[in-house]
Amino acid sequence: MRKKNFSVKSTTRPERVFLKTSETGLRDKCGIFGIYGKGVDVARISFFGLYSLQHRGQEGAGITVTNGKNLKSVKGLGLVSSVFNEEKINSLKGFAAIGHTRYSTTGGNKLCNVQPVVLNLKDEDFALAHNGNIINAMDLAREIPLNIKLSSTSDTEIMGWIIKNYEGRNWEDKILASFNKFQGAFSMISLTKNKIIAFRDTFGFRPLVLGQLNDSYVVCSETCALDTVGAKFIREVAPGEIIVIDEKGVHTVGKVQSIKKRFCLFEFVYLARPDSIFDKQLVHQVRQRSGEILAHESPIGADMVVAVPDSGTSAAIGYSKASGIPYGEVLIKNRYIGRTFIQPEQNIREMGVRIKFNPLKEIVKGKRIIIVDDSIVRGTTIKKIVKMLKNCGAKKVHIRVCSPPVTDPCYFGIDTPDKKQLIASHMKSKEIRKFIGADSLAYLSLKGLKKASRIKSNKLCDSCFTGKYPMPVKGGFRKDVFETIV
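Given the sequence above, the corresponding structure tokens read:
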């Protein structure tokens, strides 16, 4: 199929670029959910599906439904539970829906960027919910005719317009024709007035799974969402595959050749929920195995193994099992803290870690403690935890990290700080140990982490640990730099 002529003139779309940095650790861009099923409350099911994917994004949420004639959306900033209520869910009537819970990587935290993105077209509206990051979004934006005004500052809307301007008998033809234009990571669920179309990049960076709920079909980011809504897991959407869900059921309508698969290894380390399954591997078990391997690689004498909850819990259990050192809790997590827009005064910012974690002083005092964490990004949080435990009387504090040092930024859908902000990019382990104030520090080897995943090494993306990217990345591009092309 031939591409339409875009007639891009020498006049280029003005660009404004603002730097944005994350104040915490690594975070995934978003979670996506879609359901097609006549006679069921698709909006309500989508709400619960998104609720179970809240860990993948906490900045905004949205649901778009179709009734066969038009699309209707409810979107807002904040957590799923704060965006939706009974009135809003009841207003979304239809037989198919897609939903999104967002953490921004490309495009800022603004209402206009909350997904699903909806292209309001004369012929047929088109909605998209995207997990991933398009690294050539700036170049693609220049191909969009200047008479089209973008309503958001996200790469997802750019994808939508590129798809729209390709020739094809239907949306799935347009997606197939434009597929290779998009460089980067995309697990995508789109909605038209009568069908859902889901597709995944040829590398398979981000997850996308398919399930069945009675006579309805569900496609979403993780199997935990299928479990929540009572759907049965069917299979993963293959890298490069385009599927359609409509009144005829589920069928593959296209397949772009996948030369090499590169599933994100960090999904197992931190991003995914422990009760999700990828490539037949339960995330909890992968993390537990990583803790066991870490105990063999870096043993140390101690009285207790503890976790930085909750992402370090599974690995800490594994470390305890392999080392024979009892597992216990000394950090009590406030699970209701969520995200706050109220910033403390400069002189009380040190209370930040205490708001999230409170130590059990009576148990800590006089003990040699091994703390197991999923990763160290900047080192500031673990430094505060070490200091807090030592102030409580801990005799020794040893840090064990169930992943290799994070040395390089991710360009494929994870919010990673700039390389210079990654402590392991410019400090050796001994220097990091001294910086955080620990008595010892050891990381899990990359070989050990891959062994724990039980997935072939050449099927995984490990670029955040190695700096070796599976595709060329333009020098100077960062997913958190792109802000507006309007």
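The radius of gyration is 23 Å. Try to locate this feature in the token string yourself.
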